[in-house]
């Protein structure tokens, strides 16, 4: 399959400078495709196409019609489930069952926002009471305009869906910029958009190097909104870049989420959720519970069981049966994770399990599930987002200490707590400074529920109704209904 063209204004265009870059299968380090590297001129074409589709067509006025397109996209994604899941495995490295979840969730996301587009059609205007009866006011919600969605590589099609579906439901037109490591399913989404007849210019997809076209797009005066998911440093750059034209901005920037396990927890359940919380998707998850706090009474036993369980995880190519841990996404991420592990070892942090490339896998960006214990709170293993299968664990004595340690972070995306005492779970959940809290589990994510973080984890919320509101402006239309003169000048 070919990925050397850009999807702009309903057409497949070769980049102006003819350039491409390699997409690599992280399980064997072999090239799987040449991907179009958009230039600034191509990005400009995409902006103009989106601007024209927003300003000069009635796309933003037709919520019911938009719902029809969104449902058609959902259906087409489901029809191509097997093919899309396999592309995701080859491009990203994740195990096939997880890729299947992603594709199913992406389809579900388009259906969910189709429903919301229909509701938007029903309830567009809201009359609000005013303190002066001579006036009446109607509040309506309108599309924010042209949006630019910049997404990461950890859930390639799903992250596209989280932004494209609500933006289209709201009536925006947009430019989607996938991560260079994983562009393929985004381009498949372009083919799907074309197949279902989405009007030209409504969705434009430009693959390319983030540092080259990203700043151009995020500063562009004709883009009204930027939605970004990725690293904190790039998020900060985007804030600055978007500030020039005071753009509407939403950011999802990752985290270092804590999982507090109290001594009355079921140990088997604790092991299962700790492992899922940090090892699914190879730990390349913004909400991964990468810091685990265990009540002292069960600390030694839980660590022992966890290390045993981690060593049984099957590591390998994502299409192999029963594989739970695939390779990391690329050489850069592999090196970054290995450096963090190396630093931990050098500084004398106790390594309980893993910490190296699996002996049986000579090629590919594989890292063993890795557990560090008694991690000092000032160590980078405890404070920094590693974005790999590396968990930092330490013990606590009191509930108050656990909450204080959990909140001691520049991030606030997610947190989790486990105990049989539901009142305690609720109390702790209320005190954790994060946008997503799980009780007796970690990671399950629902399209209906808000997603986003406190502190440096970002601004705004995706998913649910909040995800739609990200792409809506609020307008008041106030009328003077009285026959009497207003009387400021002519009293
Ligand atoms: P990144 O932030 O560099 O890239 C994310 C997206 O931003 C990509 O599409 C990229 O092309 C684009 N981009 C890069 N520079 C840009 C710029 N100057 N302006 C606009 N867009 C730009 O993330 P990465 O290099 O892929 O990963 C680095 C780290 O980011 C990871 O190790 C991890 O810690 C974190 N990360 C977080 C998430 C998350 O879900 N929050 C996802 C992926 C990575």
Mean pLDDT across the residues is 97
Uncertain segments: none
Proportion of strand residues: 15-25%
Shape designation: globular
Broad structural category: alpha/beta
> Are any ligands bound, and if so which?
nicotinamide-adenine-dinucleotide
**What level of helicity do the residues show?**
25-40%
Radius of gyration: 24 Å
**Biggest sheet overview:** 7 strands, mixed
**Separation of termini?**
75 Å
Strand order of the largest sheet: 14-15-16-13-12-18-19
Architecture overview:
Helices cover 40% and strands 21% of the residues. It is of the alpha/beta class. The strands form six sheets. It has a seven-stranded mixed beta sheet, with helices on both faces. Strands 9-8-7-10-11-21 form a six-stranded mixed beta sheet, sandwiched between helices. Strand 3 and strand 4 (30-36) form a beta hairpin. The longest helix is centred in the first third of the chain and has 27 residues, at 96-122. It is globular and about 80 Å long. It binds nicotinamide-adenine-dinucleotide.
Task: Summarize this structure briefly.
The model has no long low-confidence stretch (mean pLDDT 97).
Which features does this protein show?
15 helices, binds nicotinamide-adenine-dinucleotide, 21% strand, 40% helix, single chain, 7-stranded mixed beta sheet, alpha/beta, 6-stranded mixed beta sheet, 491 residues
């Amino acid at each position: 399959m070919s990925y050397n063209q850009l999807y702009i204004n309903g057409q497949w265009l070769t980049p102006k400078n003819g350039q491409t870059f390699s997409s690599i299968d992280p399980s064997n380090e072999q090239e799987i495709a040449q991907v179009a590297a958009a230039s600034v001129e191509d990005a400009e074409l995409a902006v103009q196409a989106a601007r024209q589709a927003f300003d000069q067509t009635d796309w933003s006025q037709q919520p019911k019609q938009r719902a029809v397109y969104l449902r058609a996209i959902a259906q087409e994604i489901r029809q191509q489930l097997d093919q899309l899941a396999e592309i995701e495995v080859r491009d990203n490295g994740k195990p096939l069952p997880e890729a299947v979840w992603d594709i199913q969730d992406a389809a579900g996301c388009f259906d969910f926002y189709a429903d919301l587009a229909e509701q938007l059609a029903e309830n567009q205007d809201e009359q609000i009471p005013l303190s002066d009866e001579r006036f009446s006011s109607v509040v309506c919600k309108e599309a924010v305009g042209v949006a630019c969605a910049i997404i990461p590589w950890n859930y390639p099609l799903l992250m596209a869906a989280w932004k494209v579906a609500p933006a289209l439901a709201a009536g925006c037109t947009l430019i989607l910029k996938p991560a260079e490591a994983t562009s393929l399913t985004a381009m498949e989404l372009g083919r799907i958009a074309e197949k279902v007849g989405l009007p030209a210019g409504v969705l434009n997809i430009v693959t390319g190097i983030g540092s080259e076209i990203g700043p151009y797009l995020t500063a562009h005066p004709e883009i009204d909104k930027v939605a970004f998911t990725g690293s904190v440093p790039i998020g900060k750059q985007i804030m600055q870049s978007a500030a020039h034209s005071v753009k509407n901005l939403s950011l999802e920037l990752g985290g270092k989420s804590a999982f507090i396990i109290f001594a009355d927890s079921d140990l088997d359940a604790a092991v299962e959720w700790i492992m899922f919380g940090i090892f699914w998707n190879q730990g390349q998850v913004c909400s991964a519970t990468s810091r685990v706090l265990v009540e002292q009474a069960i600390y030694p036993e839980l660590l022992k069981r966890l290390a045993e369980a981690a060593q049984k995880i099957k590591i390998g190519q994502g299409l192999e049966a029963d594989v739970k841990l695939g390779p990391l996404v690329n050489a850069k991420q592999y090196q970054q994770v290995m450096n963090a592990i190396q630093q931990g070892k050098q500084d004398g942090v106790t390594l309980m399990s893993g910490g190296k490339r699996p002996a049986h896998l000579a090629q590919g960006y594989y890292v063993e599930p890795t557990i560090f214990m008694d991690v000092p709170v000032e160590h980078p293993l405890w404070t920094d987002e590693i974005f790999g299968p590396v968990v930092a664990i330490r013990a606590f004595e009191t509930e108050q200490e656990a909450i204080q340690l959990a909140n001691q972070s520049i991030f606030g995306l997610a947190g989790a707590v486990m105990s049989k005492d539901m009142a305690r779970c609720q109390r702790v959940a209320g005190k954790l400074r994060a946008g997503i809290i799980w009780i007796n589990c970690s990671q399950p994510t629902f399209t209906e529920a808000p997603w986003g973080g406190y502190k440096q984890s970002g601004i705004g919320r995706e998913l649910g109704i909040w995800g739609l509101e990200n792409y809506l402006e609020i307008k008041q239309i106030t009328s003077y209904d009285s026959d009497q003169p207003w009387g400021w000048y002519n009293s």
